[in-house]
Amino acid sequence: MTESAANHPNRFLADLTQAMRSTAELAKLSTLEQGRDNARVYVEQMRARSLLDAEELRKAAEGDVATIRDRSKAQVDRVRKETEERIGRRRELLDQELQDYTAAVSLEFERTNARVEAYKTEVDRFFEKILEGDDPSLLASMASQMPEPPPFVELDREALARELRAERQMAEAAERGETAPADAPDAPKEKLPDHWWLDSPAKLSARKKDENPG
After folding, report:
1. 24, 151, 170, 174: which has the highest count of C-beta atoms within 10 A?
2. DSSP at 85
3. Bigger pLDDT: 26 or 144?
């Protein structure tokens, strides 16, 4: 076998190996290029999708904001209405309180004048007896029995108001042709919690039902 014939397979294998390497290099470059193309397309799609998603998020947020505003306006309107109702009820209560207080003061004025007149009458009678006597020892004894002026204490507005309500109830019962025993207790005044006008009408109604289940 000649030397050229012996080297022929080696050259063939070398050329084949070189061709395979070149093909593999081309395949590598093609694969990398395809990967870059795929990444570029994906990024472009993501950018387009992100714009759409951002717009949808903005629309959803605007919808939520509109709902919040509508609900807030409804709550403000409800609170304003309930506030006006509570203010009106408190002013009605104030009117009744002022009427009761004025009536109580007038009644106390009348009773004070009556006590003063009664004391004046008692003093006049006492001094009439003093002036009729002529025994110094008897006069001294009678002087020690001089009537004391009536005491005047601070006005009990609540007690007078209850008394006035009882009298008013009896008068109303008489107008209806009803009779009430003399020792009948006063009708219980409607009990309201302190600062009741701060509660909503619905809450106040529920509280009254709980206090008066019947």
Report:
1. 170
2. H
3. 26
